[in-house]
């Protein structure tokens, strides 16, 4: 046993003299010893080797290559001592790569490159299994038409075009990446009557204007393509099985599937992603009026709204869809005392190409974490609660397999879910960042204080805080975009997402191990850093006497969100008695006070009531779940958090109100007010119960 | 007589029912009638014809072509009924064009274009008398060296390079236009040891990234070059005759001239301006580290700090200087009642090429104004005070001939100068803007309220205010950059600069009549608009019973400036008792109150004391003049306003303090405090005297 108790003495200076939230009596000291042991188990080499193995070939969901990744992960976790289960699903996926190309047809014929350059500095770039650029769930079609530039293809961009009297009907819309989830570019383009859509990476946003380009630097070169899904349904997950797990067709339990033609909201127009080297050819030939303020990008031309009649572009995209098998891999360390309270750390493992930063820097970190936790357990420190390490499939196509798993175990998760930590591409660079539900914010801040930032005298917390004068580091609010969605917004499990980031060539064939070791982190010390943060957070939740939720943060953050909503609604509500969030803000302040009393009581909680206290704490976040769901999609059930249904990536806090505001409506504000007041009252009552139990 | 009393009935709706500041009893009504008559005299066609004639050939200062412009202006003003005088000076000017070119020498030989393209849409662009790009007062030299990019070539940019450990010693610095007066780019490059300097127009600042380029639009095309002077001495005007007028060598009064070699501060390194089509060739070949944040421009490459050893660029510039003859042309309408109180409106007429927007849109406007005022005088409305219309020479080389004129008539101007209005390129576009000394701000605001904005129901004031929620339109503070400098900062005459602007191809051969009629103002209505504003302001000052200075504005604006200075000094003064501007702010507030009382008293001023009141008012601004001058140059004598001696273009308000702050010094703050308190006390005493005289 290489890493065992012998290194316990190497407690870092960060880990000393801290009273840990959730630990009673001298359990705090014992936990510190466990953490010190844990913090000595990480190795850069181990992380590096996992990453190299995981990313040796392109592994799109549904391919044999991805099954090889699946088997490697299962093997590593089994060897680490975890109970490993594999969960297969049959989901409705695009058949890759299909046909996908574009060309200028008039005034000259120019084929437009849509595959990454082969660079001698990156041996992976010549892999024969790499595909050209495509978007998953595009419509199919072969269209030749004039072009219209639509900036980022956001709702407001299409509205601006309409206001300018520019029709995209029958045209090919050219939009740049950024500003929203790419699926919404397709959704709006189709809604406004476009015949096709080209989405390009603008060098002003992600290319040479940002810094040196690949392979000299970490920014997109003129051949770098962002692939990605276009799925924008009213729910997350498999298009054919909303609310239900897409269990294999041959499984005993039969799931009722929608027929593909019953699924409304799939896109019909052909959509193709292009690199800026190709987009340049189009922009160089556009005529007509220059763009409105803010629409100019980094190509060396004045951007214009329309291409004019002399410029014709062809987009030919043919993409089939069929039911395909995907697999989640979940490893479990069963809790020694509270096996029915689950802490889950997960990341997807499927990629658009090699996936070195996205997602497999997170996967490699989780594999290393499973090994470290396994060693810790073997040396006598089994977690008191259950820790699960999950590897999700088919995230890239639309956060699918994690959602199916949540739907499969919804009841169990409602009863047992303590927290979900997401690690999608979690060690992609050298800058630490995180987003969180309120109740995990305190844990994240405290945990990062005991993890050193490599090659410096700082903790991760200090590095994260940087030179800010603020009281705490920038800890965002969680929304859409990855595998926490079902846990957080469908079931109501406190969720957190964090790790290190930096410039990457997102969703490109150039996101290889070669990219990683040259740009993302040549030291390979960031994987261990992130593992330490995930590990400390997991171990504190797992071993705490009472769950270390940041109870007062609910009220605190609610006030901020209601104040933001007040500004949003005041901007359009010009009635004589405009809606006021006053009573909700008042309720938030009271909730914060109750939360603070609760936290104070928990510091010296009555040990006899521990079990009851934890059960109540566990159900706090679940109070946000409204079985009727949101007006824009009843699969989204959290009254607290949701992906923004108009852009996809952004976080909507208090989404029922956000939806009203987005539609400039006041009709339902009073109705929602009552629902939110009721929820806050339930939260408050639960906190008061906990306080009583603790005293 | 085409325009006479017959049109008096066409009083515009803007001109009615206003009580005019400075007019007593029913004189306000009479003035309104005069203004109504004046406002009916403008004609687009007249403005257009003047502009076309003035700009038919390139007319650099010191050339025969510029003498033809001189003669045209003199003729127009004489015909209009003004007394016209021509003031010759012999000044030390560069001999144009000399030699000026650059080429890439290694790794390939590429000559770099430095002359504007000939466009068929602009017949002027093929004029054989147009020169290549050059900078006046460059040093001479033929150097071949590696290149270093220095962003805007500002003080802070060279400091940043030094901090990064990058030496420019022996290198050719490449800097983009913008951020400061170009002469300072040369000054700092030379100070840091550069062998040469290339200044280029960046497409991100002024080219395709801003909008359509010439001749399709009004932005620089890849051949457009900004010419301009590099002169950065410790004074403004002729390099050989600071403080003294550069009277002709053959004039009776002999002026002592410095020998050229005695003038310290002239640049020695060769400096060349280039268009972005040429700069692109350099940037495409640079190697090495990418630039710091904010240094990236609009060329389609990642900007790098150094070119590296493989890239060698040659700059060959040979430019002689000799004493040359230039001429101011001044037309005078002698005041009928107060001939010794002068209102002067002026603009330079020399240009780098045709000068359609800069400066001759202002010249054409002033010629039209002289005609309108002449007609008004002939129809019986002679101004009570003297109005002078001045056309300055050799402004482009360094605001020279206007300065010589001020130095020639310094004593008279100190005694008689009521106001100076500057009209440099005053009708260059369609957006109205202005900058002013405090005492003329009220006049500017009130005057623009009676001038209609063409083809709209708005006044110029309303157009200028736009959609701002602010109490007044953006009325800037006057600093460096044009012919007001000597009037305002050397003699202390209240000054104002205003007109209409928009995108122009500044200091380029493309600034032609063709550019003007296609982009600056196809309607030619802006010239008349600006003429109306200048005319109303002039006539109000000329005819007022008591000068309509905005007396309370001194105190008001002083507070703003002291508050700004407090922020500047607090940023570096970390002593235990940091310097406080409290007593100065207090004095400003008291001055404002005294000013308000003074303004109130002036509304019903005792007519018997009119003459005495005006004499006191006339000397208010002169209180700012400190004969010892500023620490960075004793020619700059106003304690209130100065060009920023570190950037040239920016305005320094309360420059003695600004100089301390720029040097992060606290040593002299207390000394200056006393000087400013004394000045404020003198202003206050003068205001109190006026109030007494008025009551």
Molecular structure report:
Two copies of one chain form a homodimer. Chain A contains 20 helices and 20 strands. Chain A is α/β, with parallel strands linked by helices and 695 residues long. Chain A has three domains: 311 residues, 3-Layer(aba) Sandwich (Aminopeptidase), CATH 3.40.630; 187 residues, Glucose Oxidase, domain 1 (3-Layer(bba) Sandwich), CATH 3.50.30; 142 residues, Up-down Bundle (Transcription Elongation Factor S-II, Chain A), CATH 1.20.930. In chain A, β2 and β3 form a beta hairpin. In chain A, α8 crosses α15, α11 crosses α15 and α17 runs parallel beside α20. Chain A is globular. The N terminus of chain A is likely disordered. Chains A and B meet through loops of A and loops of B.
Features:
homodimer, 695 residues, alpha/beta, Aminopeptidase, Glucose Oxidase, domain 1, Transcription Elongation Factor S-II, Chain A, 8-stranded mixed sheet, 4-stranded antiparallel sheet, 20 helices, 20 strands, disordered N terminus
The chain-level mean pLDDT of chain A equals 95
Structural domain tally of chain A? 3
Unreliable parts of chain A: 1-17
Count of alpha/pi helices of chain A: 20
- The CATH topology of the largest domain in chain A comes to Aminopeptidase
| Relative strand content of chain A | 15-25%
Biggest chain-to-chain interface with counts: A-B, 16 and 16 residues
Q: Specify the CATH homologous superfamily of the largest domain in chain A.
A: Zn peptidases
How many strand elements of chain A?
20
Query: Which CATH C-level class of the largest domain in chain A is it?
Result: Alpha Beta
Radius of gyration of chain A: 25 Å
Named at the architecture level, the CATH assignment of the largest domain in chain A is 3-Layer(aba) Sandwich
Shape, per Cα inertia axes of chain A: globular
Structural class of chain A: alpha/beta
Task: State the helical fraction of chain A.
Answer: 25-40%
Distance between the termini of chain A: 44 Å
Largest sheet of chain A: 8 strands, mixed
Main β-sheet, spatial strand arrangement of chain A: 1-12-14-13-15-18-16-17
């Amino acid at each position: 046993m290489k890493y065992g108790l012998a290194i316990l003495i190497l407690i870092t200076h960060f880990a000393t003299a801290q009273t840990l939230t959730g630990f009673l009596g001298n359990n705090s000291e014992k936990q510190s010893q466990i953490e010190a042991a844990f913090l000595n188990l990480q190795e850069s080499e181990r992380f590096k080797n996992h990453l190299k193995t995981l990313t040796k070939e392109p592994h799109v969901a549904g391919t044999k290559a991805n099954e090889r990744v699946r088997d490697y992960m299962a093997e590593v976790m089994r060897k680490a001592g975890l109970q490993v289960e594999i969960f297969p699903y049959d989901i409705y996926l695009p058949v890759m790569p299909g046909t996908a190309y574009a060309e200028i047809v008039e005034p000259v014929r120019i084929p437009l490159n849509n595959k990454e350059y082969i660079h001698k500095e990156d041996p992976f770039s010549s892999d024969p299994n790499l595909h050209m650029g495509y978007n998953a769930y595009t419509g199919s079609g072969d269209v030749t038409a004039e072009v219209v530039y639509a900036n980022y293809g956001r709702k407001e961009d299409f509205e601006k075009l309409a206001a300018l009297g520019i029709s995209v009907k029958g045209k090919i819309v050219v939009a740049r990446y950024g500003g929203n989830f790419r699926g919404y570019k397709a959704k709006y383009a189709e809604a406004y009557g476009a015949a096709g859509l080209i989405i390009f990476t603008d060098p002003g946003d992600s290319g040479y204007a940002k810094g040196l380009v690949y392979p000299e630097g970490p920014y997109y070169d003129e051949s770098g393509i962002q692939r990605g899904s276009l799925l924008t349904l009213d729910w997350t997950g498999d298009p054919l099985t909303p609310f239900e797990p897409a269990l294999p067709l041959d499984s005993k339990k039969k799931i009722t599937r929608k027929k593909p033609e019953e699924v409304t909201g799939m896109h019909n127009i052909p959509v193709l992603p292009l690199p800026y080297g190709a987009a340049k050819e189009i922009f160089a030939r556009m005529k007509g009026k220059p763009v409105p303020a803010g629409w100019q990008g980094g190509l060396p031309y004045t951007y214009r709204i329309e291409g004019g009649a002399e410029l014709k572009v062809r987009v030919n995209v043919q993409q089939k869809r069929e039911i395909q098998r995907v697999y989640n891999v979940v490893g479990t360390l069963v809790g020694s005392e509270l096996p029915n309270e689950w802490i889950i750390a997960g990341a997807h493992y499927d990629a658009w190409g090699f996936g070195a930063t996205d997602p497999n820097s997170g996967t490699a970190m989780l594999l290393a974490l499973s090994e470290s936790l396994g060693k810790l357990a073997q040396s006598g420190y089994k977690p008191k609660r259950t820790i699960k390490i999950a590897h999700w499939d088919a995230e890239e196509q639309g956060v699918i397999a994690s959602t199916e798993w949540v739907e499969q175990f919804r009841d169990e998760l409602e009863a047992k879910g303590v927290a979900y930590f997401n690690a999608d591409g979690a060690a992609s660079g050298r800058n630490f960042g995180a987003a969180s539900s309120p109740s995990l914010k305190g844990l994240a801040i405290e945990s990062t204080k005991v993890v050193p930032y490599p090659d410096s005298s700082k903790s991760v917390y200090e590095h994260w805080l940087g030179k800010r004068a603020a009281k705490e580091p920038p800890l965002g609010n969680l929304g859409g975009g990855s595998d926490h969605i079902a846990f957080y917004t469908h079931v109501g499990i406190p969720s957190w997402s964090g790790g290190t980031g930096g410039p990457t060539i997102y969703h490109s064939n150039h996101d290889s191990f070669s990219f990683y070791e040259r740009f993302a982190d040549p030291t390979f010390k960031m994987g261990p850093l992130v593992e330490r943060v995930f590990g400390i957070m997991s171990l504190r939740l797992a071993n705490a006497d009472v769950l270390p939720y940041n109870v007062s943060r609910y009220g605190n953050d609610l006030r901020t969100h209601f104040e933001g909503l007040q500004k949003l609604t005041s901007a359009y509500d010009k009635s004589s008695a405009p809606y006021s969030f006053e009573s909700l803000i008042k309720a938030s302040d009271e909730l914060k006070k109750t939360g603070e009393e609760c936290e104070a009581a928990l510091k010296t909680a009555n040990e006899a009531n521990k079990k009851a206290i934890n059960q109540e704490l566990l159900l706090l976040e679940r109070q946000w779940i409204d079985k009727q769901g949101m007006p824009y999609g009843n699969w989204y059930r959290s009254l607290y958090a949701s992906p923004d249904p108009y852009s996809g990536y952004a976080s909507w806090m208090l989404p029922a109100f956000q939806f009203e505001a987005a539609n400039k409506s006041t009709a339902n504000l009073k109705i929602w007010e009552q629902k939110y007041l009721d929820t806050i009252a339930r939260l408050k009552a639960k906190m008061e119960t906990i306080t009583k139990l603790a005293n």
